[in-house]
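Below sits the subject:
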Amino acid sequence: MVKRTALHATLVIGAFVSVFPYLLVVLTALKTQRQLSSTQPWLPALPPTLANLGHVLRSGFAGYLAHSVLMTAALTVGQLVFTTFAAYAFARLRFRGRDVLFWLYVATMMVPSAVTMIPLFLIMRELHLINTWWGLLAPYLLGTPYGIFLMRQFFRALPAGLEDAARIDGAGPLTILVRIVLPLSRPAMGTLAIITVISTWNNFMWPLIITSGDDTKVVTVGIAGLKGAIGVDPNLMTAAGLIALLPMVAIFVAFQRYIVRSVVLTGLK
């Protein structure tokens, strides 16, 4: 009983530490400047106000939110399509240098993103893609090493006899992939989609570097832009953070079962 009580107390403390920053975001976003300076940060505002949320949305943040949704949707679809084709080729098709090419590509995961940021920017500048949607999407649209590695390992775990039986019936590689392999790969594809949505929505450095106008600015860059010349307005920044947080919370509530399954599948537990 003592061990179980200590374990649950530890879990409760850990959960509180994890949730407390999000609670502060909600409480601060619903306070006025006067309430923020006259009350403790962890106490709710009485009465709460939605003025900060309305001010942020009227300042153009709604457009940034739409840009993030569009970017996330495009990159998720691109990842699922191109990553699946590449992973299936590395897992099942036989061609010269397949394994060497695969492991060289996977080895790029060990290279910090800061190392490739400047070369990527120079490439986009030569292609005249600065401050364009193509420049924003191009580095991630055709797949990532982690996504290809994840799908390849899942494809290799599928029974080869299913594909052999389909091949005997006259099915080609594309038919086998679409009609047999993909229906069996929904857990892995769900994992890849969840990881892509979260990483894309939270991506900050590349959108900050490649975009400069409001036509392509996303939520993360928009939040950073709320910092004024004379300092930070915590009410507005936390209101913007709350608006950016709500879609991720909605996704978690709606797809909680698949998120737990993705954690088990990828071994992140």
